Fold this sequence. Notes:
Layout: H1 14-66, E1 73-77, E2 83-87, E3 94-102, E4 106-110, E5 123-129, E6 132-138, H2 144-153, E7 160-167, E8 170-180, E9 186-191, H3 207-224, H4 230-246, H5 252-265, H6 281-295, H7 300-303, H8 309-312, H9 328-334, H10 342-345, H11 355-376, H12 378-389, H13 395-403, H14 408-432, E10 438-441, E11 446-450, E12 454-458, E13 462-467, E14 470-474, E15 485-491, H15 493-517, H16 534-548, E16 566-568, E17 574-576, H17 578-587, H18 589-596, H19 602-614, H20 619-678
Antiparallel strand pairs: 1-15, 2-14, 3-11, 3-15, 4-8, 4-10, 5-6, 5-9, 7-8, 11-12, 13-14, 16-17
Helix pairs in contact: 1-15, 1-19, 1-20, 3-11, 3-14, 4-11, 5-6, 11-14, 12-13, 16-19
Amino acid sequence: MSLGPIGMNTGMDINAMVSKIVDAERAPKQQSINNQLNQIDSSISAYGRLRESLDTMKNLMASFRQEKAFAARKVESTDDAVVSATATTEAIAGRYAVDVLQLAQSHKIASDVFPEDTKFGAGKLRVAVGNKSFVVEVKEHSKLTDVVRSINGDKSNPGVRASVINDVNGPRLIVASELSGQENAVSMTVDTEQPQNPLKKLEYKTLEQRVRDLENARSTAQELLNPLTDQEQLVADRIAQRNISAAKSVDQEIADATRQAATIVDPNAAKDVTPTNPISNQAIAAAASAGQAANKYIKPEDRIPGWTETASGTLLDSYWEPEPELDAKALEKSADVPGWSNSASGTLTDSYVTPKEAQLALDKKLAAEQAIVEAENQQEIDKIDAALLAGELNDEQAKQAKMGLLPLEQRDYIQRVENAQQALKEAQRSFDVYSGMSQVQAAQDSKVLLDGVAQLSSKNNIIENAIDGVDLTLKGRTQPGKQASEIDIEYNREGVREDIEQFVAAYNQFHQLSKELASADPTTGQRGPLAGDSVVRSADSRLKAVFSSAIEPAPDDLKSLTEFGITTTRQGTLEINYSMLDRQLNNNFNKLEDFFGGNQGFAKKVEDAIHGITGVQGSLRTREQSLVERNYRIQDDQVNLDRRMENLEKRTHAKFSAMQDSTSKMQQQLAGMMNAFGG
């Protein structure tokens, strides 16, 4: 309280005198309060340190028990650059040989080089990854970069990434799957009405797909080739005869030899063949034999597809062609059979219709049907043709008008024939001349040979549960001639050893701390903040009781800590005999969990003992709470003391002020009297 200096005329400093009086009154009481607060703060801090040390031990034991330390597995690989592994508690300890045959990889395809100024026509580009697909609309005059943006920006894109590679010869389109594995292969098909659209070069079909498409189209066509009616047969024979007459022989020498051989056997062979004058089987056989004989004298470059002198490595004149194993009919067909090989197929039968035969048959079938329509509806056909010439109808309208002359069933059949014919031509074109995208990187699964017996695979380079509880991570292929990598799965003995070491260190830290806090030096009189406190003695004695007690669920030779080589020193700390500990870890690892684990094991007993000290109802917590409540009471004493001292200061100041006033008046009266006498 500041009252300001007064009474200077009397030489008295009332404020200083009041402060000295109040301080003298406050000092002993304030010192007592301060001492009590300091003692409480010191004790609370000491209890906190002690509780933290005990909880460290408790948490170690809880983790030791709950995390299944004894069930954990340690995994090592002899070659981490090839394979690594992780193991759960379900894994069986052992050694496994892992031979990485191939790594999983994503599919990648590339187009041929395009001219810089290439512009695509309108069409649809269907892109698929596995069984998921989406369609990209390509507009007229689109550039390659437009196609890339359309693919990458499509919301339905299931995982395809397109990009442009600037080759030295021009740009290329690269399309890759973002997912690895054989089932995530990329495919691309093009739908456009423009036959010369460069967009066609962006389709991607494997040889197997092209063969399959051709075979499917052939099969569909063959289903439509039902026997011709008598009327259709006559028309078809006339058309076929015209084609034969108009055809030019590829080699006149072979044609003459064939005709001569057939005529010798059957004079009718050189004449027109009619239903009443068929060529005999003997003439067919002789013609085929003569054709084969003549064929031997033609140079290979004229009769062997793909022949080059550098590729053969032999002189042309010395070339010898093996005798054909197939009959003449089969040899004729074999060139048109997709994927044909002598060894794979054996002998072709007359019942097989090749794609080219099917196409010719469809042509004859369609021509016969159209000829019948013309014969039966000639007047109507003439009217339609006249309207076409007059410009009243276009080609498509004229075609539809002629189709309308047919019965519905026949019209439907002709439409199916035309569709099959178009599909067969397209499949044949794709098979004969392929200009689409090519494969840069095959889509493949990872493959592993385990212990030389079991074959494992995955669509990525992580094989989950390859062995019960073991996941393999593949990083590289096993080099040819190198020994397979080995995965060792062992019990985590080192981890358990470290956990035991940490527990012993935690207890020793607690023991040293409790001695420091409860110490009392009779010589110097110095005392720790918890000197004489029963809580410290109780905590240590509880733990020592657990250490020395037997664990009943444990085996007979593992009942106490001493059998692990953990003993108490004269100073009260724990020490480890590592020879004994390692022997137990190596020889009895499977039994250790019976000692440490479970609700009756050592770890749980330590947890319970510490919880009885540091828990909510524990002795240490109770003591801390009482100190906090005492601290509140002392703070109340401080408030009361401050209030009393303030009142004392006011009263004392008032007294001095009154005395100051009285003295001042007396001095004034005295001064007046002195003046009166002197005057």
